[in-house]
Amino acid sequence: AWERPADATPGARLHVGARRASAVGWTPAPCQCLPSLEAAPQASALHGERVARLLPRELPAAAPGVHLWLCRLDCRAEDVDSIATLLSPAESARAARFGTDALRVRWIAGRAALRMALASTLGVDPAAVALRRGVRGRPELADARFGIDFNVSHTRGVALIAIARGLAPQTRVGVDIEHRDRQVGADRLAR
Q1: pTM for this predicted structure
Q2: Which of 17, 23, 43, 158 sits a CA distance of 20 to 30 A from 190?
Q3: How many C-beta atoms lie closer than 10 Å to residue 140's C-beta?
Q4: ∠96-127-65 over CA atoms, to 5°?
């Protein structure tokens, strides 16, 4: 069970769960409050204050083999330029097509955070994480031999990333984060 952390900030809640691709009766985890987005002290010591603020923050494990990462999506222009170097050429081209700077910045920050979280799991450099578009456009690792599935959810200026290792065949991990004032039907999350 995941308890409300002492540094929890009001405003966001999450649902985490895994379901088989053919399963009908999926039950999401209960809503939880998220911890604040302040950088972990060790991240600041290793990377400096500016970069540490952009690193995804690992949360307590949601379930065996499922790890959660929380990241901020609203960044300053100079910060976005530095993390945009982690993106592939195709991802950079996609980011350039966004209609507003705010959407472009959030997408770059989210994709860079995903790459950092996956890199931490795989033990590789974030720029070396090979991603591809899977069925229905959902991103996935280009090399399925790693046995890792992941999912990303966004709300306002934050994203939540779930990374699962060791799932049964045909099982996908799913995560959802919503701002507290949004009405969510938990039974619809599995669709």
Answers
A1: 0.73
A2: 158
A3: 16
A4: 115
Distance of alpha carbon 188 from alpha carbon 169, whole angstroms: 23
96: left (phi over 0), alpha (psi -120 to 50) or beta: alpha
| Average pLDDT for the chain | 75
Q: Which of 116, 104, 135, 137 is nearest to 70 (CA)?
A: 116
Separation between Cα atoms, residue 99 and residue 138, nearest integer Å: 21
Q: Which residue carries 């069970």 as its tokens?
A: 1
Taking the C-alpha atoms of residue 145 and residue 143, their distance in angstroms, rounded to an integer, is 5
At 132-188, the pLDDT tens digits run 998 888 899 998 888 899 999 998 899 999 999 988 878 889 888 887 776 666 666
End-to-end CA, the chain: 24
In angstroms, rounded to a whole number, what is the distance separating the alpha carbons of residues 190 and 184? 12
Residue listed under structure tokens 């995941």: 2
Non-local (6+) Cβ contacts of 15 within 8 A are: 28, 29, 30, 31, 175, 176, 177, 184, 186, 189
pLDDT, averaged per 10 consecutive residues of the chain (191 residues), comes to: 38 44 35 43 43 79 89 86 92 95 93 94 93 89 90 92 88 85 64 59
